[in-house]
Amino acid sequence: MSDYADFIADPRRGCAIAAHRGAWHCAPENSLAAIEAAIAAGYHIVEIDIRQSADGHLFLLHDDTLERMAGRAERAGRLSLAELRRMRLREGDGGSGRAVTAHAIPTLREALEVARGRIFLDLDLKDRALMPRLVAEVADMGMAGQVDVKAPVDTPEARQWLACPGDLRGIAFMPMARFTGGNGAALADLLKTMRPFMCEASFDRLESMAEHRQRLADAGTAIWVNTLDPVASCGLSDRAALANPDGVWGRLVEAGVSVIQTDEPQALQSYLEETGR
Question: Pfam families attached here (predicted)?
Fold first, then answer.
């Protein structure tokens, strides 16, 4: 398996698919089975959410509480890993109507081991203060070339942190930025200075991001865009893409987007294969 940054920089590949919280249509989100399903389907990247237990272990869960995925009202970070491991995840993306499965909440270390040499991981750290802990665990497992970590760059607080993020020990960093008509040029200049391997971009209009495509390319920075329904930009959502893939996924590819994160990875994969993108 190639290095993550080398894979992203490869001009010969088509648009890459990032499965949001794993292939959760097949297994509970953020579970080892969801990562396995994404690997089996041939997706390129899995996004997973990282939290820390009360006794200092990193584990996978998106929400602050266990309500949606395990039917428990407790705040996940206030429980020990042993307590968390006794929980059983609901199927899919959870909720009260979903059945309880046999799948447990996994640790980051378990997720890294499943992914080793098989798929890239986008690590969404829910508490930036945990970055040194996450970096140490990834590096100690020899997985620095297979993951990214990310943080926003368009707030004063974020830029203060970025001035001294600590030693990432070879892990690729992905800034998260929102392009608008008023800030696009300045943001592109900032990214050109940082020269990250990729930027997770949102925008007020697709053109606000697309017009700076060449400047980002000159800096060696690829573009990642989310079409997830709750956070999609300008209506370019998964829901809209299922009805009109050319009007959503096709427009993004034409605008120079290199990676699309989606809750509908199978549909996106079929579209990319059918169109040769």
Answer: DUF4996, GDPD
